[in-house]
Each structure stands twice: as structure tokens, then as C-alpha cells.
Specification:
Two copies of one chain form a homodimer.
Chain A lengths: L6 E11 L8 E17 L4 E7 L11 H10 L7 E7 L10 H16 L6 H16 L7 H6 L2 E7 L2 E6 L5 E8 L5 H6 L4 E3 H20 L2 H7 L6 H4 L6 H10 L4 E4 L6 E6 L1 H16 L5 E7 L6 E2 L1
Parallel strand pairs in A: 3-4
Antiparallel strand pairs in A: 1-2, 1-12, 2-4, 2-5, 5-6, 7-10, 7-11, 9-10
């Protein structure tokens, strides 16, 4: 081991995948919600999860999302030391805002930093995808990419890994409501159809193209017209109590758009300006307060940096 | 009638719809191919097609694409005069490069200019769509929008009409080969499936998003990775003799991508730089020269102006 830094503390951000029209492809990064993680070099070879706080998750590396991504990277290394990982989990697993992605990204980002950065962000995403696959039973990167790159991202493909950073207009804020119910990712995948109407697919790719254009041109009204989902929402919304009521409340309060965060149950809204995002939060809270379901809400600016050293 | 100009001569450009990944949505405008049209005020009320050269098309306005779009606009006007239209057709009908769109656009653009421009380009597109519908039996605007706006366009929706102008990197050139065979638009529509695999649709909208991003960032290598069509090409390519051989030849010669122009039979390629576009033309010609099918080819820069007064 060199004299370089032996320990690093990280903020691993929550993220929102899909962004209404961009199922499996688009995502953005949050600022006010995320895990903290510590990654430390250790003389003993291997990957060791030494501390987990917040939620009850496995310590065995090969059964833990952060451990699996770390092991995927570690297998490519020829080094005489190992890494310890501490996870201070703030993002509830299964909430829909990239809890597993944050863990998967944190370990490999930290290891890479401690080694002086031998891997680039695309390679980190590829390692992290191994951990993500443990949680979701399929290899996807639509939460990983925004967690690593920050801002809005488009995962053009995962094989090969091809990630685009889309501009994030400075005045976009996210509001999240997290109903405290459990939706299994497997269920939210299983509910999706294998085939879709060509006419619906055309609407969806028009919206993906126009949302990318809107982000490039800071055209908030075009964002409003583009944040639509005619493919996935009709199915997954059935799993989320009061989904349409919450969405309507958010739009009534001025949101540019609202949709299912990842596979749910969290619901996100995007707004122009923090004031509107706070009003949207009020509207979401007021609606959900009339139900018996516990919930949490957050307002966050778009995190254009992504994962960061604390 | 005022003393203002009573006659106008126009260049109504050819266009390429779909652009591989963006079926029914994307299009771009050509510079070196197009119709000429003359639109003239006349004291007699109504729309009169007074001359057609180049191809045998109906003179009855209600049966002619240019006439139908003109009548759609005329029906909204309260004026005591009419318009004569002359069509010098250079774009062969049914070639796949927006022959009907050029005619549909020319008449309404010319009338609007002669009246001092009461309608905006979006409204012109809506009138022109009525003419386009006569030719293709469905209302679409993916050729009309680039003919009117120029450059690359994304038709986000036609109801309401929502057209985005996507930046056109200055070094993009198109090569077109037009095999002189007839494909009926109705046939090329009928061959398409009503449903598509969700997994294919995801690939397609990832490519639409990345192509829009590539055009914004002048990222030619990303254009190369984005100009793919997993939805329509597998079906429509069957109607075009030697399609895959021509496409392969274009890519071998350095094209960024190649695909079916609109509903075919023309095949387009996009290249970085005119030299490459000319090499692509050579490669396409060499391939098609080995067949018994007559053909024409063109090289054109992207026409960022669209329809223009001569």
C-alpha cells in the first residue's frame, strides 16, 4: 500500500429512472437524498462489508449490492490488499429512487478513488451494473448513470455501455413522494407487456426526442409537453395507490410533469423553480394525508455532479 | 387586389422522413432536389392548377396534392380573388423523398407569401397535411415539417401540430439513391406490424434521444451509433431490391448511417463531409450498376432554409 489516502467517505445520491417517456433509458440525479458510504483499504485481500446502518441488508459481499459491484471490479485487479465498505443507508431499499444503484456505485467509485482512478466513469458503471443486477434481476443502468455522471443521462446501450450526459437546465427541481408500501421490482417488471402498439411507441419516442431537445434548449414548456408515458404508466400505476390523484395534484400545483420514479412506488414531479417544487410537495402531501398510507416527501435540485467525496 | 406582388416562384425541396430511428417523427430537408412551383393571384375565386410539367398528375384541384392543401387554406380565407398554381415537378412521385410533401407545401407557402404572410409555419404545415393525406391516406407531417422549416425536424405531434427544429451540424451531407421501381405507400404502410416488442421500442427511443443529442452536440460518431432502425427497416427493406447490399456499401464507404427514405424505395445515407458523401454515392452506384434496375443518385447538403422564393 502506498502512502496515499486509505479511506474515503462518499455521498451516493438517489436517482430517478425513466423520467416518464424514457423507460430503461433516461434518468436524473437527486441532491437532497442519498446514502453515505466509507470505503477503506485493508491489508487483507478481498471485499469486506464491515458496517451497515439504516436498513437490514446482508453483510456477505456476494449477497450485497455494494459487495457484488465491488467484487466485479476487484476481480479485474491484481493487488495485494482489499477494501472495507461501510454503508450508511438513507435511501430505503425498494423505494424506486435508486437505492440499490447508490450502493452499487458507491463501492466501486470509492475503490477507484483510493486506487488513483484507474477506471473511467463508463467502466465504473459497468462494474456497478453487476451489483444492480443482484437487486433487480436484470442488467440496467438507468439509475447508475445519473448516480455516477450526475444531471440527466441517457443510457443509449449497456452492451457496449454508452452513456450520454444531457444538459440539465438550472431551474429544474424535483419533488418526490415515497408512499411507504413495498413493490417488488420483479412484480413491477412482470406487469409490463412484452409487446406494445407501434402507434404508442411512436408517441413515446417523439417524447424522448423532444425531452432531450427541451433539456438542450432549456425549454420548460416543451418539457411539460414531453413528460408523458403512454407505455409503462398505464400498467405500473395500478401498483401505486392514488397514483393518478397524486399526479393530478402535482400538475395542478404547477409541475411540468409527474410520473413513476423507476419501478415505483415513489412518484416524482419536475418543476421550474424551487417555489413551484415546494408547492407541488404541499399538494402531494395534502393528497396523501387523506389516505392511511404513511409517506415521505423530498424536494431536490438536480444534482449535476453525481456521487461525490465528502 | 393590392399592388403587391401577384406572382411568386418557389423551390419546394425534397425531404427524407424517418431518418432510421425516428419513424413518423424525424425528417431532414434536401438542397439539390426539389420542385419548382409558381403561385399567382387571379381575379377569379378558387384554386386553379394551370400547368403541370414533369409528371402526369391531375389538374383538378381536389384530386391534386398541391390543390388539396391550397383548398384547405383557401376555405379559411374571406377574399375576393383566387390562386393559380403551376407545378414543375422534378421529384418523381412515389420516390420516397417527399414528392407529395413538396407539392403540398409549395402551394400554401406561395399563397401565404402573396397575401403578406397571415399564417405561421405551423399553420402552413397543418394546411399542407391535408394535401399529404391525399397521397398517403394518413395525416403525417414528417416530410412537410423539414420542407417548410428546413434542417432536421421532429414532429412531436400533429394534433396539435408541434414541430421542433433540431440543429443541423454544418458538415452533414446526404446521399440518395432512387431505384426506379414503384412501391405504393399503402403497401409500405400495410407491411408494418401493429405491435412491436417493447425491447425493440426501447432501443428505438434510445436512438431517437441520442440522435437528437448528437445533432445538438455535432457528435458525428454518436450519429453513427444512433442511425439504426430495429422497428421498420426489417419489414420495409423487403420491398427494396438489394437494400442491405446498398446499405452495406454506403457504410463501407464511410457513411455515418443509411436507411430507407420515408416509405422507400429511395435509400439515404448521411455522411460527415461532402467528399465522403460522394464516395458513398460512388459505392451505391457501383452496387446498383450490377443490377438490371435503373436508378438515380443525388448528393445534397442539408438544406437548413427549407422552401424558398426563387
Amino acid at each position: 500500500m502506498s502512502n496515499a489516502k486509505n479511506e474515503i467517505r462518499l455521498f451516493a445520491p438517489a436517482t430517478v429512472a425513466n423520467v416518464s417517456c424514457g423507460f430503461d433509458v433516461l434518468g436524473f440525479c437527486l441532491d437532497s437524498i442519498g446514502d453515505e458510504m466509507v470505503v477503506r483499504k485493508t491489508g487483507k485481500k478481498g471485499i469486506f462489508i464491515t458496517k451497515i446502518e439504516g436498513y437490514d441488508l446482508p453483510y456477505v459481499a456476494s449477497l450485497n449490492v455494494a459487495g457484488v459491484s465491488a467484487l466485479a471490479m476487484y476481480a479485474t485487479l491484481d493487488i495485494d490488499y482489499g477494501f472495507e465498505i461501510e454503508i450508511y443507508k438513507r435511501i430505503k431499499p425498494g423505494s424506486g429512487v435508486g437505492s440499490s444503484a447508490a450502493s452499487a456505485v458507491g463501492s466501486v467509485y470509492g475503490m477507484n478513488e483510493l486506487m488513483g482512478g484507474p477506471f473511467n466513469k463508463v467502466q465504473l458503471t459497468t462494474f456497478a451494473m453487476k451489483g444492480e443486477a443482484l437487486a433487480s434481476q436484470c442488467e440496467h443502468a438507468d439509475n447508475l448513470a445519473p448516480a455516477i455522471f450526475g444531471g440527466f443521462t441517457l443510457v443509449k446501450s449497456v452492451q457496449p455501455m454508452d452513456i450520454l450526459q444531457i444538459p440539465s437546465p438550472s431551474d429544474v427541481f424535483a419533488t418526490i413522494i415515497h408512499p411507504q408500501i413495498e413493490i417488488k421490482t420483479a412484480d413491477s417488471r412482470a406487469i409490463l407487456p412484452k409487446v406494445v402498439a407501434l402507434s404508442d411507441a411512436i408517441v413515446q419516442w417523439a417524447n424522448v426526442g423532444s425531452l432531450v431537445h427541451a433539456l438542450h434548449t432549456s425549454d420548460y414548456e416543451l418539457m411539460r409537453r414531453s413528460l408523458k408515458d403512454v407505455i409503462v404508466e398505464p400498467y405500473r400505476s395500478k401498483l401505486i395507490p392514488f397514483y393518478h390523484e397524486v399526479k393530478d395534484a402535482a400538475l395542478q400545483a404547477g409541475a411540468l410533469g409527474a410520473g413513476i420514479a423507476g419501478s415505483g412506488p415513489s412518484i416524482f414531479a419536475l418543476s421550474k423553480g424551487k417555489d413551484t417544487a415546494l408547492k407541488v410537495q404541499d399538494a402531494m402531501r395534502a393528497l396523501y394525508a387523506t389516505t392511511a398510507i404513511p409517506f415521505e416527501t423530498y424536494v431536490s435540485k438536480i444534482n449535476t455532479q453525481g456521487i461525490k467525496i465528502l
